[in-house]
Amino acid sequence: MMLIPAHHFRDIERKPQYLQPEKCIPPPHPRPAGAMWFIRDGCGIACAIVTWFLVLYAEFVVLFVMLIPSRDYVYSVINGLVFNLLAFLALASHCRAMLTDPGAVPKGNATKEFIESLQLKPGQVVYKCPKCCSIKPDRAHHCSVCKRCIRKMDHHCPWVNNCVGENNQKYFVLFTMYIALISLHALIMVGFHFLHCFEEDWTKCSSFSPPTTVILLILLCFEGLLFLIFTSVMFGTQVHSICTDETGIESLQRKKQPRRERRERRGSWKSVKETFGGDFSLNWFNPFSGPRHPKPLSDRDWVRQVSSVSDTENTETTTEEPSEEPKDEDFAEVVDE
After folding, report:
1. DSSP letters spanning 230-299
2. Which of 8, 110, 180, 293 has its CA 20 to 30 A from that of 206?
3. How does pLDDT run across 311-336, given as a tens digit for each residue?
């Protein structure tokens, strides 16, 4: 058996039989098309509940501590409408990021029949994930939490209880942006409210007692500052990832590779439009408008050339006995004439 260590994370097998496709059995009850996507992970569900609780807490303090007791009716109405709109868009984006299939590869498709139907030519390979028995297209990675291979997987985020992939990255970007905006808005209102209460009587600037008002405002200030920093950083990294067309996982893998094996990706306006759903418009900021509907995977999407993985001139070949079972994460099939 010939192995080409052309990639730090994959080995390419020269013998098709060592893929052992007979062990890959499709799930008896496949998820119907259009079904809701939801990851049953305790940590992720808890983080999602905490996210909603913190947003609703901010909503409570803004409305019942600062705006409703205010004597300035115009100030209260304008800020109340803006804050509630941003909070609604943030929670809607969170739901869409959490309940949207991030781009899961069909599970259990690495069967002998499907591999034979691809009719691989010399120099072509397919990568198989032994964890979910799926043939992995280019730029797909296995998530140990979702237990699926995800196309263009950036990372798994417990706060949205889902992976961030090619189908829901827009919603995750909008979620981080709207959370950052409501955090900034809340901090500004807290600052103005403190100034107002220092100038006026504390008993008249809130319907709660002065100690309770101070505690609620300090907690909101701490929450807003923390989430403003966190979501701003996440928003920046996601925008950079989209503009450069390189996911977080790909960036880490590229840094671990020797310089001569690195393959630079050049971002384009096309990748931005694909993520946000067409040419620039207000729909880019609408969590109810999805990205461009991804095309179904064709046979050529499952197959890759050896040269596309690495420059074969920079690879070395090693041999193993056929009785030894490969231990690496992914396996590939090469057909030689």
Report:
1. HHHHHHHHHHHHHHHT--HHHHHHHHHS-GGG-------HHHHHHHHTSSSSGGGG-TTS--PPPPPP-H
2. 180
3. 333 322 222 233 333 333 444 443 32
Per-residue b or e along 47-75, where b marks 16 or more CB atoms closer than 10 Å to that residue's CB: ebeebeebbeebbebbbebbbebbeeeee
- Torsion of the alpha carbons at 326, 299, 155 and 245, rounded to the nearest 10: 120
Residue 186 CA to residue 97 CA, distance in Å, equals 24
Q: What tens digit of pLDDT does each residue of 260-275 get?
A: 444 555 557 888 888 8
Q: The tokens 């198989």 sit on which residue?
A: 128
Instruction: Give the span between the Cα atoms of 231 and 173, in whole angstroms.
Output: 9
Give all strands (DSSP E) within 71-139, no chain letters.
Answer: 124-125, 127-129, 134-136
Q: Give the global pTM.
A: 0.79
Q: Which of 157, 163, 197, 205 is catalytic?
A: 157
> Residue written as tokens 């590779």?
257
Q: Are 132 and 109 in contact (CB under 8 A)?
A: no
Q: Which long-range contacts (CB under 8 A, 24 or more apart) does 61-64 make?
A: 61/186, 61/216, 61/217, 61/219, 61/220, 62/186, 62/189, 62/220, 64/207
Q: Positive or negative CA dihedral for 208, 211, 216, 220?
A: positive
Do 19 and 13 touch, CB atoms closer than 8 A? yes
CA–CA distance, 225 with 17 (Å, rounded to integer): 57
